[in-house]
Amino acid sequence: MIELKSAEEVDRMAVAGRFVGELLAELAGVAAVGVNLMDLEHHARRRIAQRGAESCYWDYAPSFGRGPFRHVLCLSVNDAVLHGLPHDYVLRDGDLLSIDMAVGVGGWVADAALSLVVGTPDPADLKLIEATEVALEAGIAAARPGGRLGDVSAAVGEVARAYGYGVNAEFGGHGIGRTMHEAPHVANSGRPHRGLRLEPGLAIAIEPWFCRSTDRIRFDDDGWTIRSADGSRTAHSEHTVAVTDAGPRVLTRRPAASLPAPSPGGLAAPA
């Protein structure tokens, strides 16, 4: 069942969203060559506890995975793109890191993700990250009342193809509100003017993720970590967005100073 939120409830989701955005910005600042993934995990645990918030990941047990998830972050490095388990790994120069988190504050949830390169960036990695960010903004722009869910999915998929990347349909975005995963599913490719009508009060997580040279994935033996099937690099961006009468409202924006600058020579958003 799809639950439409009142304006007051969206405001309460925005409280969680602001915290998620701020913490992601902090983590992006902490991530550097020589930092252990578990340092990032424990930093997030401390901040969540200090805020009196709750991780949506801790004890999460979907149909995939092996046992409940016992971390507050998904940390995916290089060819890992989704659900990466924090572990004893020290970041190296040029690593591409994706950080994903979902937190509840006062009974309402927000979910967001970003990708970054630590140390010396490869231009191809910057292009890949940029593609997810441009696709995310395109999906957000399409999340307008009176439109269709297919408009959001089509906007994301069009950007992926414009940048030369394929789209995997197995995992995508989702509804969100009182819990992390609610209806509807938000695919990263679709047909415009099709699907669920977008109404004020609908809250969704839009999350483009792309692999550099494949649209196929594989799971690690841990049952959680998802990697590109061919070992190519990956990137992932996500925001929680509410459809309102005034248009899309992004609830998980990071502080402006933390937003990554466009990559040198990077592609502009497709028209």
From TrEMBL:
Q: Which domain of life does the protein's organism represent?
A: Bacteria
EC number in record: 3.4.11.18
Alphabetical list of Gene3D superfamilies matching this protein? Creatinase/methionine aminopeptidase superfamily
Q: Which cellular components does GO assign to this protein?
A: cytosol
Show where the Peptidase M24 domain sits. Answer: 12-245
Q: Where are the transmembrane segments?
A: none
The processes (GO biological process) annotated in the record are: proteolysis
Q: Which UniProt keywords apply?
A: Aminopeptidase, Hydrolase, Metal-binding, Protease
In terms of SUPFAM superfamilies, this protein maps to: Creatinase/aminopeptidase
For this chain, one GO molecular function annotation is: metal ion binding
Summarize where a divalent metal cation 1 binds, as residue positions. Answer: D100, D111, E238
Enumerate the residues binding substrate: H83, H181
**NCBIfam families tied to this protein:** met_pdase_I
Would you identify the family this protein belongs to, as annotated?
Belongs to the peptidase M24A family. Methionine aminopeptidase type 1 subfamily.
Entry function: Removes the N-terminal methionine from nascent proteins. The N-terminal methionine is often cleaved when the second residue in the primary sequence is small and uncharged (Met-Ala-, Cys, Gly, Pro, Ser, Thr, or Val). Requires deformylation of the N(alpha)-formylated initiator methionine before it can be hydrolyzed.
Protein name, as recorded: Methionine aminopeptidase
Lineage, uppermost ranks: Bacteria, Bacillati, Actinomycetota, Actinomycetes, Micromonosporales
